[in-house]
Task: structure prediction
Amino acid sequence: MASEARTIAPLGRRSLHLTAVRDLGSYRILHVADPDGPEPEPGQFAMLACVERWGAGEDERPYLPRAFSYARFGDGEAQFLLEDVGPGTHRLCELRAGEQLWLTGPLGVGFSSPSQSRRAILVGGGVGIAPLAMLHDKLDEPSTVLFGFRDRVHAEGEQLIDRARVATDDGSVGHHGLVTDLLLEELERDARAEVYACGPAPMLEATRAMCVAQNVPAQLALESGMACGFGACFGCVVPTRAGDYLRVCVDGPVIDAAMLERVDAHAGAPA
Result:
C-alpha cells in the first residue's frame, strides 16, 4: 500500500445534490455538493448511485453502486470524471444539476507524497486521469504529467491538468503511440523520480514492470470492479509478489508497484 493513513468515511451513504454537470470531450464531470462530508485524500474513491431510476426496470434488480475516484474536492464540492460505457455509467451521465445521487465515501487508501529527492511523474490513461488531477493540485513541487488517450475527442480530457504531455493511439494529438513511451523517455532522462499512475490494466502493468526494472518507486491506483467498497465481498482482489492477495477497495486502490506480482486485466480503468 502507498499509505496507511486514510480519511474515514461516515457510516452509511449520503443523498447529495448535483450543482453542475459539464462535458469534457468524451467525458462528463459531475459536481456534487458535499459540505458535511470529509475531505478525501488524492487517490481515494466514492461509491455512487442515482437516487431515482437506479436499476434495469420495474421488478428487476437495481444496479450496484459504481466506484469513482475523486477528481477534485474543494469548498464542500466533489468532482467525479465519468464516461458512458455501460448501463450504470449511462444512468449517471444522464443526471443534471439539481438532481440527487447516493454517495458513500471517501473510501480506500490514497497516494503518499514523493520523497524530497525525487520528482513526481503522473501517468494517466482514459478516465484514470481523474485521481491524478487531485494529486497534482496538492503536490508541493511541480510535477511532470503524461496522459494517454484513444483519439482526439478523448484527448480533450487533457484539460483536466495544465501542460500535460499527451499520447494518442491514433496519433491525432501529441505523441503517436503509448503514454508509457513518454514515461520511458522521462525515466531515461532522469530516473530520480516517483511515478503515480492510474489507467487501463495494460498501461499499469507496463508501468509496473518498467519501474520495477529500473528501481523507480511507483504508486498504482487500481480500478477493479467493486460490489461493496468495504472489503466484504472479496471481488476486487489482486495478487502480490508474496503469494497472497490484496483487496483493492480497502488495501488500495493505491498500491506500491513493488508489492504486485502483476496487474491483471480486471484491475484497470477503461481506456
Summary: Residues 201-213 form the longest helix (13 residues). The mean pLDDT is 91. The CA atoms of residues 55 and 61 lie 6 Å apart. The first strand starts at residue 14 and ends at 24.
